[in-house]
Design a protein that fits this description.
By secondary structure, the chain is mostly helical. Helix content is 84%, strand content 0%. α1 (2-25) runs antiparallel to α4 (61-80), α2 crosses α3 (48-59) and α5 (84-107) runs antiparallel to α6. The model has no long low-confidence stretch (mean pLDDT 94).
Length: 137
């Protein structure tokens, strides 16, 4: 159970640092194909509107970081006081975010968001399922 706790804390830390770096990272050359995909999807001008897309994604970084902070706290608490309710809370938080975000992104043709969500979702939910029994006792 300790390995799963540490893994989930690492996922939370990744969200914290990734979210804090996102406002800077949106300007890196390596992610520009992602922004061109979004611009093409919405038939936007590749200059002015691309800058707007970078801003809109970058400003979301602190929200991702705050989710990571909260998730780190919940994971730390949950593994010190395991119970059915806290396990379901962690699952529900992931389902609400991943399913809704993925459907919404896919409706607009941004399937790459659904892929990113799936990787993050599975990196959290699979380990939680591995320790479900300990939380249900």
């Amino acid at each position: 159970m300790l390995v799963v706790k540490r893994w989930l804390q690492l996922v939370a830390i990744f969200h914290i640092f990734g979210g804090l770096l996102l406002p800077i990272g949106v300007h890196l050359d390596v992610v520009q194909p992602y922004f061109r995909l979004m611009a093409d999807t919405f038939a936007l001008n590749h200059n002015q509107d691309l800058l707007f897309l970078q801003f809109m994604v970058g400003i979301f970084g602190p929200t991702i970081a705050s989710w990571g902070v909260l998730f780190f706290g919940i994971v730390t608490y949950a593994f010190s006081q395991p119970n059915k309710g806290i396990w379901w809370l962690m699952i529900l938080a992931c389902v609400v975010w991943a399913v809704y975000d993925s459907i919404y992104s896919s409706l607009f043709g941004l399937w790459i968001n659904a892929v990113i969500n799936a990787v993050a979702f599975l990196s959290i939910v699979i380990p939680l399922c591995m320790v479900r029994r300990e939380f249900m006792e």
